[in-house]
């Protein structure tokens, strides 16, 4: 019997997750189908109940439900609890169990593209302190154990996230102005803010002049393919990484949770790039 999987979010019309997971089901000869469900905020609890009754095997959760879903689950495991956000749910014996594969997905994508940088345990500056920043910051703080600093428009949120990172590594909260002045001390700068999604916003976050040669600039957004932040870094000759590797590797980790099989992330990334972007 074909197992049911899916994605809950809104908007989700442009999501690449259904194409990605359905191709993996085909390639691994697992009988499953992944459907995108457009779920407005007020309908989340009802939809989760319906999917539970339908016997859905697993689903992903995306904007705006990653935090709101937590009270609707039976258990939250791994980093999802400390991050306060779930992106992957598995149903076993009628129990819905939530995980978060976003941060590890970012790390795996980074490892696939910049293995030498990962080996060097880079010091990292994270711009933003929202849900996406939390998942990436906490995983990198644990993996690198060096320095993960946080800068954010709302400084109090940077302080809060920096304190959480300090359990694992050195971490300071910086204002945008301090981050501009100190940018030369980082080997990697990651933009986790949503600013690149809004073409009418002033895209200038802060000056990146003064970054050390070969600093990697990353963004979690992949549509647009290059945010203004990455365009500027690329123009100045820095290596860049957009959000596509994270999308694919968080998906591969979710697929593995559901099926026990870890699919080929890099191959999927090339496919999505050439087919959809
Ligand atoms: P997500 O789950 O995608 O991280 P979020 O929790 O709403 O979404 O967080 C959005 C992040 O983008 C925050 O760090 C936010 O900064 P504030 O905490 O100050 O709101 C940041 N952000 C959004 N628009 C921004 C802008 N125009 N300039 C600077 N930062 C912005």
TrEMBL record:
The UniProt entry, under Pfam families, shows: SDH_C, Shikimate_DH, Shikimate_dh_N
Q: What is its EC number?
A: 1.1.1.25
Q: Which CDD domains match?
A: NAD_bind_Shikimate_DH
Q: In which pathway does it act?
A: Metabolic intermediate biosynthesis; chorismate biosynthesis; chorismate from D-erythrose 4-phosphate and phosphoenolpyruvate: step 4/7
Protein residues bound to NADP(+): 128-132, 152-157, 220, 243
Where do the catalytic residues lie?
66
Q: Which residues form the SDH C-terminal domain?
A: 243-269
Instruction: Specify which residues bind shikimate according to the UniProt entry for this protein.
Output: 15-17, 62, 87, 102, 222, 250
Cite the Quinate/shikimate 5-dehydrogenase/glutamyl-tRNA reductase domain residue spans from the record: 121-194
The reaction(s) this protein catalyses: shikimate + NADP(+) = 3-dehydroshikimate + NADPH + H(+)
Report the InterPro entries cross-referenced here: Aminoacid_DH-like_N_sf, NAD(P)-bd_dom_sf, SDH_C, Shikimate_DH, Shikimate_DH-bd_N, Shikimate_DH_fam, Shikm_DH/Glu-tRNA_Rdtase
- Transcription regulation listed as a keyword: no
Where the record annotates domain Shikimate dehydrogenase substrate binding N-terminal, the positions are: 7-89
Q: Name one GO molecular function term.
A: shikimate 3-dehydrogenase (NADP+) activity
Taxonomic superkingdom: Bacteria
Keyword Oxidoreductase carried by entry: yes
Q: Which NCBIfam families match?
A: aroE
Q: How does it assemble?
A: Homodimer.
State the family it belongs to. Belongs to the shikimate dehydrogenase family.
Q: What does this protein do?
A: Involved in the biosynthesis of the chorismate, which leads to the biosynthesis of aromatic amino acids. Catalyzes the reversible NADPH linked reduction of 3-dehydroshikimate (DHSA) to yield shikimate (SA).
Q: What is this protein called?
A: Shikimate dehydrogenase (NADP(+))
